[in-house]
Amino acid sequence: MILINLLPHREEARKRRRDAFNAAVGFSVLVGMLLAGAVYLYFQARIDNQDVRNQTLKSAITVLEGQIKEIATIESEITALRARQKAVEDLQSDRNLQVYLLNELVRQLPDGVYLTDMRQVDQTVTLKGSAQSNERVSELLRNLGNNTPYFAKPQLIEIVTGSVNLAPRDQRRVANFTISVRLQRSSEVQAAAVAAAAAAPVAAGAAPAAPAR
Questions:
Q1: How far apart are CA 112 and CA 135, in angstroms?
Q2: Minimal CA–CA distance to 144: which of 171, 116, 180, 118?
Q3: DSSP structure class, residue 6
Q4: Shortest CA distance to 178 belongs to which of 135, 109, 125, 123?
Q5: SS3 state at 178
Q6: What's the CA gap between 52 and 46, in Å, rounded?
Q7: In whole angstroms, how far apart are CA 204 and each of 59, 196, 198?
Q8: What are the residues facing 118 on neighbouring strands?
Q9: Are 150 and 166 in contact (CB under 8 A)?
């Protein structure tokens, strides 16, 4: 006996394949969405973590900026205190500076040199006077530059020939001069002395040895 299937088996097969395809597509879409969600959540967590770190860094930077401002303020206060301390030390060391000035002038004036005027502006002293000759003026400049630590950088500003009456009939020719010299502070004199003492052993060690005979 011959059996004939009259049911639409081809349509049912196509429907099963279509349903299987739709199920596979749906499953793939679901897996893709799950993967995309997982990736999104992963990167979002990293972004949130980085935001937290950035906020922490901003807070730390703000604190450091405040500390830097405090340090700058402290440094300016220290600088001001040092300037005040130096001013006080200079005032204390300069109390006897005028005594040193007069004492050294008396010591360094050569014979035949007479001062007629002396003015001081800050550390610059201007001397005016008369000398028996130009050589006496040169000697005074050498004395001020080499023989005393309280004077530095003597400069001859002016020298002119003049005359002075010693008696009604005794007139002498003189050299009228103007000299400027820097008056050293006591702290500068002490610093120069310390530097000279430190350089003396070095200079002695660098001196050439005497040739052997």
A1: 10
A2: 180
A3: -
A4: 125
A5: strand
A6: 10
A7: 61, 12, 11
A8: 127
A9: no
Q: Which residues contact 168 (CB under 8 A, 6 or more apart)?
A: none
Pairwise CA distance, residues 129 & 23, whole Å: 121
Q: What are phi and psi of 210, to 5 degrees?
A: -70, 140
First and final CA of the chain: distance in angstroms? 150
CB 125 within 8 A of CB 135: no
The pLDDT tens digits of the residues spanning 167-176 come to 667 678 888 9
pLDDT in tens, 54-80: 999 999 998 998 888 889 888 888 988
Task: Give me the half-sphere count of Cα atoms (radius 13 Å) on the Cβ side of residue 131.
Answer: 22
Cα–Cα distance measured from residue 93 to residue 185, given in angstroms and rounded to the nearest whole number: 7
Angstrom CA distances, 186 to 1, 193, 200, stand at: 142, 11, 21
- Torsions phi, psi of 96, nearest 5? -100, 15
Task: Take residue 32 and report the two structure tokens written for it.
Answer: 């893709």
pTM, two decimals, is 0.50
User: How many degrees, rounded to 5, is the angle at CA 106 between CA 87 and CA 93?
Assistant: 15
